Amino acid sequence: MTKVLTVSVPKYWEVAKVNFSNSTTYLTNVLARSATVVIRIWIFTQLYRVTYAVSGSHVIGGMTVSMVIWTLMFTQGFQTATRPGVIRLIDEEVKSGNLAYSLNRPYSYLLFHYFSHLGRLVPILFANIVIGILATVVLAGPINITGIGILAGIILLFFGYTLDFLISFMVGLTAFWVEDTSAFNWIYQKGQMVFGGNILPLALFPPGLRAIAELTPFSQLFYGSAQTIVNFTMGNFLKFLSVQLFWVVIFAMLAVYLFRKGGRNVSINGG
Amino acid sequence: MFLSTVAKYINLSFEIIKTNILTAMEYRTSFLIQVLGMIVNDTALIFVWVIFFKQFNQINGWTFADTAMLYAVTTINFGLVMAFFRGSFELARTIARGELDYFLALPKNVLWHVSISRSEISALGDTIFGIIIFFFAGDVTVEKAGLFVFYVLISTIILFSFTVITQSMAFWFGNFEEAAEQIFHSLIGFTLYPQTVFHGLLKIVMLTLIPAFFIATLPVQLIRNFDPVLTVVMLVYAASIFCIAVIIFTAGLRSYESGNLINVRI
């Protein structure tokens, strides 16, 4: 009944493809998202230019103004591609009872949603990044990005999306036990906002707080990848990767456990 | 005649809001989790700025106290619209799904009715947070508190009107739900940061396309330093954008096509 992990790649590839097409159908939405990205980068450019000018420093925490803007662009571009979020989707499936229909289908519920999620986010991610890069080049100026930095960043991004999915999946599943999951959703979102480097890159944090923030799962979602692309060092990449994999394993186990536990609450009536 | 109509609407609004709150309170645990969750949520947001201003004391004269005032204003105006006029945030979806039919058949004003028909109870948490954070925003006097209430109410009207304008685009564009949400996120984006950093073309955007200046910058400035001329400017702006919202919604309503949807409202 509660098949959580059943691997059959072509099936999930098709799931990802269908969701990819859905995401590209509504052009107005994609454009609106892109405009939001541009405005955000514009705001960050003005905020950090003034901030650096006031502080009188060209480099803070190893980052120039341009590097800060590029890091924020990547972090937010990666993060906003995940909307509409998995939390709301799972929450609705649990509450509406649609989850029950999925359980006896020949796929793993978790993997089905994982690949749907990846399929949905790819076109939005692509649009975010293309528009984000163009806007950042114009507004903040180009920076030096290495090939190895991009490669390392993509690896971290893949695991970042996996981690985000697992946490969101778990939060969504709490609908089995609580009436409304939105409070957990906000806390997760704001955890990202504080420790995920969405507004203030962790490189600009006071050193003690920075060390703590870099160990939280929030910074492993998208900031690690963004920081690695912008300012690659092998040491930092390996540090991010190991912390990230630690959290992926922990949350994968928790997600499977929670799904099995919640699955026992499902009662299917014929008819 | 006009006054008695206004009184009727106020009375009816009060009754609907009361029912919405009582309905939400039926699920007491959920109600408390939502309200407290939102307060925790807002506290986390302001914590970013505690860290920021620990690193950089002030930005062009803007200090943490100003950010506290900014958050006090914006969480309350946002909280009020969401708590009492949540329907305005769902207009695009309501239009796209042809669900306006229900409101069209009733004798009261459609925009008023559809807006007040839904409540986001968690937004009461925003409002509570806004009131608390006001006390961290510098010296609190009776005069400042009065100005605070006045400007928050005016900015609430502006926020509501802007929401109606963007959501009403669904009358012409069909699926505009996500786009309207993104435009709203852009507006919120402006209200999170020290307002003294914005300049040039971006400032013009804040004054025109996305009225963040009137929702965030100006109220904070006027609470700090009362200015009668700017107050009149804000009032005129609020009245104008409200009228524009009503005109756009009414024009859209004429091109609205029913979804012939049969559903049951419980």
UniProtKB/TrEMBL annotation, chain A:
InterPro entries in UniProt: ABC-2_transporter-like
Keyword Membrane: yes
Source organism superkingdom: Bacteria
Pfam family, one: ABC2_membrane_6
Entry protein name: ABC transporter permease
PANTHER family found in the cross-reference section: SLR1174 PROTEIN, SLR1174 PROTEIN-RELATED
Keyword Membrane applies: yes
Keywords for the protein's UniProt record, in alphabetical order: Membrane, Transmembrane, Transmembrane helix
Spans through the membrane: 50-73, 121-141, 148-178, 240-259
